[in-house]
Amino acid sequence: MPQLNPNPWFLILLMSWTIFSLIVQPKLLSFTSTNPPSTKPETIPPTNPWAWPWT
């Protein structure tokens, strides 16, 4: 069963994780968020009861 031979696939796995960890991940983490979190407290608008016409 050739698919159980880890020789070529393990090297591919290591190389892909190395590329991801060293090249791709720092580039993705360098982006800043376009909507930073706010320090203002969240206000909940007051709700009014609905005036049902049949009650």
UniProtKB/TrEMBL annotation:
One annotated GO molecular function is: proton transmembrane transporter activity
Location of region: Disordered: 34-55
Record's keyword terms, sorted: ATP synthesis, CF(0), Hydrogen ion transport, Ion transport, Membrane, Mitochondrion, Transmembrane, Transmembrane helix, Transport
**What cellular-component terms does GO give this entry?**
mitochondrial membrane; proton-transporting ATP synthase complex
According to the record, the segments passing through the membrane are 6-24
Question: Subcellular location, in the record's words?
Answer: Mitochondrion membrane
Instruction: Enumerate the InterPro entries for this protein.
Output: ATP8_metazoa, ATPase_protein_8
**Gene Ontology annotations of biological process type:** proton motive force-driven ATP synthesis
Predominant subcellular localization, coarse grouping: mitochondrion
User: In this record, what's one Pfam family?
Assistant: ATP-synt_8
Record's bilayer topology term: Single-pass membrane protein
Instruction: Give the protein family.
Output: Belongs to the ATPase protein 8 family.
- Protein name, entry field: ATP synthase complex subunit 8
Q: Which organism is it from?
A: Gorsachius magnificus
